């Protein structure tokens, strides 16, 4: 079966750095997405990785290793507004998005 | 750019009635739109893929006669929940894929519609 694993919840301190991991086992791979979702709101797009390596976008970076079936989202200089759920999603061989359950990130002052 | 709107943002209805939710891509064309449902503290669940000018593709376990999807134009898809029941109460989210964008196939999400069935 297809599976996306993410930690359920993480806690970090304002101003610090946090890494949210995502491992996947899917039938084929055509890209990996990270989305941010604040409580009660729809997800917003953060990043897209299709090749191995690190994609940096401001305070957020996303890394992909296709051989390991692994990605992480790195958030730097954490702000209180970064408290949200972070969803990892993989596009499989049929170009369907398989969603992880999300990681709830709690930022403490 | 890449803005998706949904209407209404929330709706309360009586059991047995039907509710229509609209999803619009405001500044791009979307041949493909997706409808998701999200129950509290759970992940997004894809309900169906809506293709402009053709029938929607429903995920396993989603009743196509209950959740009617129409994608009549490149910027509008509608989801109608027919004969709604309390168990249909959920957060319904649509997303759209920019037909003319590169191969990233990024989905842009609408703000969601919170449906409460009494």
Based on CA atoms alone, the radius of gyration of chain A comes out at 13 Å
The count of strands of chain B amounts to: 11
| Largest sheet entry of chain B | 7 strands, mixed
Derived structural class of chain B: mainly beta
- Could you give the distance between the termini of chain A? 40 Å
The greatest interface here is:
A-B, 21 and 18 residues
Over the alpha carbons, how many angstroms does the gyration radius of chain B reach?
Answer: 14 Å
In terms of DSSP E residues, the strand content of chain B is: over 45%
Q: How many beta-strand elements of chain A?
A: 11
Question: How would you sum up this structure, described in words?
Answer:
The complex is a heterodimer of chains A (about 110) and B (about 120). In chain A, about 0% of the residues lie in helices and about 55% in strands. Chain A is mostly beta strands. In chain A, the strands form two sheets. In chain A, strands 2, 4, 5, 9, 10 and 11 form a six-stranded mixed sheet that branches. Chain A has a five-stranded antiparallel sheet with strand order 1-3-8-7-6, with no helix packed on it. The model of chain A has no long low-confidence stretch (mean pLDDT about 95). Chain B has about 120 residues and is mostly beta strands. In chain B, the strands form two sheets. In chain B, strands 2, 4, 5, 6, 9, 10 and 11 form a seven-stranded mixed sheet that branches. A four-stranded antiparallel sheet of chain B has the order 1-3-8-7, with no helix packed on it. Classes of the chains: A mainly beta (about 110), B mainly beta (about 120). The interface of A and B includes residues 43, 95 and 97 of A.
């Amino acid at each position: 079966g297809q599976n996306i694993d993410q930690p359920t919840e993480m806690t970090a301190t304002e101003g610090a750095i946090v890494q949210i991991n995502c491992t996947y086992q899917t039938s084929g791979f055509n890209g990996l997405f990270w989305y941010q979702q604040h409580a009660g709101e729809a997800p917003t797009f953060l990043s897209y990785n299709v090749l191995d390596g690190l994609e940096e976008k401001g305070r957020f970076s996303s890394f992909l290793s296709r051989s390991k079936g692994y990605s992480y989202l790195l958030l730097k200089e954490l702000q209180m507004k970064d408290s949200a759920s972070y969803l990892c999603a993989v596009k499989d061989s049929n170009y369907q998005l398989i969603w992880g359950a999300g990681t709830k990130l709690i930022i403490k002052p | 750019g890449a803005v998706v709107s949904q209407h209404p943002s929330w709706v309360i209805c009586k059991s047995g009635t039907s509710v229509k939710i609209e999803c619009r891509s405001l500044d791009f064309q979307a041949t493909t739109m997706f409808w998701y449902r999200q129950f509290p503290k759970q992940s997004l669940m894809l309900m169906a893929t809506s293709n402009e000018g053709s029938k929607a593709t429903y995920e396993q376990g989603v009743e196509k006669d209950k959740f009617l999807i129409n994608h009549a134009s490149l910027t509008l898809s509608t989801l109608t929940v027919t004969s709604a029941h309390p168990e249909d109460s959920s957060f319904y989210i649509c997303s759209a894929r920019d037909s003319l964008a590169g191969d990233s196939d990024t989905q842009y999400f609408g703000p969601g519609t919170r449906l409460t069935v009494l």
